[in-house]
Inverse folding.
């Protein structure tokens, strides 16, 4: 079931741009979860930290500001999340729940790195469970959003077969990668490298760990790595398109 602005009961909480302010909506979200039959799966998208970076009038003089307008809106979303978890702690489903928190992209103005092909999507993916003290630490492997579902399913000891285009973060048997499509190019990030492929041929290869700003195209000097990564992009795109065309994205 979908709960959006039209389903939300108080139009006074509309921010005038994107939807309902994060604080009241996350409270409403927690209340809806209380009515769900366990086990359940649910997703919420916060929006107050998005441009034009507004905060409710009552918080303008209370929340910290910074060099950029987004800083205060992030402080507001942080407050909203804190209140959500304080409310959720009182619910019977809280200790049986795995929370995943992530973002869609970074804020480009903080640093030039966040305005390049690697940095613009270098966002955290956080897993939290109040009942699992072992779920802590930092995993520095490459991870993408399509890895979330296999990661959660492995964590929950899900044994059935499934089709997904990601890999579990807990899987130590395979190398981890990320694939995106940006400005007419597929890009594959794997090991130390990022390869750009325009659909017909590879056009650039960078060692992003040594060349974080992606200034030095080394495609001509590492042809074997380029070919291997190009074939991997082709296989992923081919498999995905085939499953879309023939409706094979699920196991029947």
């Amino acid at each position: 079931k979908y709960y959006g602005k039209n389903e939300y009961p108080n139009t006074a909480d509309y921010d005038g741009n994107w939807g309902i302010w994060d604080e009241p909506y996350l409270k409403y979200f927690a209340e809806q979860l209380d009515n769900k039959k366990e086990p359940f799966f649910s997703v919420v998208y916060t929006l107050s930290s998005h441009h034009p970076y507004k905060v409710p009038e009552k918080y303008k003089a209370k929340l910290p500001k910074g060099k950029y307008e987004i800083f205060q809106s992030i402080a507001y979303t942080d407050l909203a999340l804190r209140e959500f978890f304080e409310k959720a702690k009182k619910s019977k489903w809280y200790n049986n729940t795995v929370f995943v928190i992530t973002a869609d992209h970074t804020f480009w103005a903080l640093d030039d790195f966040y305005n390049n092909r690697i940095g613009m999507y270098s966002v955290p993916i956080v897993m939290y469970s109040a009942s699992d003290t072992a779920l802590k630490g930092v995993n520095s492997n490459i991870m993408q959003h399509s890895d979330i579902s296999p990661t959660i399913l492995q964590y929950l000891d899900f044994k059935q077969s499934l089709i997904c285009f990601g890999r579990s973060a807990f899987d130590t048997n395979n190398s981890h990668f990320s694939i995106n499509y940006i400005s007419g190019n597929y890009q594959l990030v794997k090991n130390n490298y990022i390869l750009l492929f325009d659909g017909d041929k590879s056009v650039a290869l960078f060692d992003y760990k040594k060349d974080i700003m992606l200034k030095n195209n080394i495609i001509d000097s590492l042809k074997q790595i380029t070919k291997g990564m190009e074939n991997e992009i082709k296989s992923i795109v081919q498999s995905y398109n085939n499953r879309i065309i023939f409706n094979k994205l699920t196991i029947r």
Remarks:
- The chain has a mean pLDDT of 95.
